[in-house]
User: Fold this.
Amino acid sequence: MNSLKNKVVHALLWSGLGQFARQGITLAIGLMLARLLSPVEFGLLAMVVILTGFAELILECGLGSALVQHSELKDEHTNSVFWLTILVGGISTSVFVMGAPLVARYFEQPMLEWITIALAINFPLVALRCVPYAMLARAMNFRAVAIAELIATLVSGSVAIGLAFAGFGVWALISQILLRNLLLTIAFWGQTRWSPRWMFSVTALREMLAYSVHVLGFQTADYWSMRIDHFLIGSFLGAAPLGLYTKGFEMMMLPVRQIGAMATRVMFPAFSKIQDDPARMKAIYLKSIGCIALVAFPVILGLGVAADSIIPTLLGPQWVETIPLIRILCLIGAVHAIGTTTSWIYMSTGRTGLMFKWGLFVGMMKTVAIVIGLRWGILGVAWASFVVQFAVLLYPNFAIPGKLIGLSVREIWMAVQAPMLMSLLMCGVVFGVGWALPSELAIWARCLIQVSMGGLFYWGLIHSLRVKPYQYLRGVITERSTGMFAKASPVV
Assistant:
């Protein structure tokens, strides 16, 4: 038990450090690119990425998760998955190269033909790293993953900024994607001891697919429920509105993805090791979502309140149209930050079929809402998503998986209640500070004051009131840091 706890804590710390550093670098690079490029260029890329992102899901087939979850992994499993993903990667590249003219014709953007062909190179890279990453995740070696992602993000982002300065436009964004995936593939192969063999077992593959097909089904439904708005905006409103919506969505999702991805990549392997102990899973889950809420809620909600000073300061005046959009999306993002954690329960308990059915329902409800909202532009889409999220999906999203481990929605609310209330109080302070500041004050100074005051107030609240998730995180970090320094200190 202590061994698993130590592994989880070590993995979370490394994953957290990696995500924190990568998030900072990603944010800095993204802000510079947003100032150098226009919403239209971001919109053009988004039109193709919607399709290539889905193809990457199909390529992996949920088999990476199956490799992590399988209790008795053998060579025939890993090798069969490897050769299948290589095959699907090659087919995907061929399909997108041949279908590139159709993509350009559908969106009525001739330039998309070459963008689609360029991004098709991505599929073999993703296929090559599927098994090595799964082996690293299974071993909970997130130190190697964190270092690889940090270097890949820094190098690819630096190249993209240089190309944007040189006037390459959307091709700067494309180079960033391709170079990052190339570097990650090389790094993951360098960090794992596994190497492929000429071995393919249909029986072993069937064992993997029995689990992964439902994971793929859920990921497909979840992907389109999160991207159908982008696809429909690109189809009916054009590249510029899609660019604005994409950037607003990315600003909201940055903390959600980074915090959620950090926790998911660690907690899914950890939950898989204790899948026969629901009581223990429940206890760990409640602690985990409390910690996620502690970090995610103030960042997301604070962004929404201070958007009128943050967006012009960070992105520039060409993005001010995203301010009302971001405010709506941040309300959805706060729920999404903890809502994605339910996949840990489904996947670690092997109930991926139920997860798939729920994903289909979510996708259908969101699609209907977005189609209705399109009539009022990108703000209409955002409000429609907000209504369906809170009125229809919120309660069952937690209630259904909760039953698998004896977890009630009330217990979930109690776990995140304090961070939510503290974050709302912080938002009141941020709003009040913004209202009190003189209108002639420079926008960057207003942003700095609001963010600083909000952060200090929030920390003061959770520290003085000894909020449980804060106390737990502080204890874990202190304990781990003490242990690391003790190991590093020479023996006298």
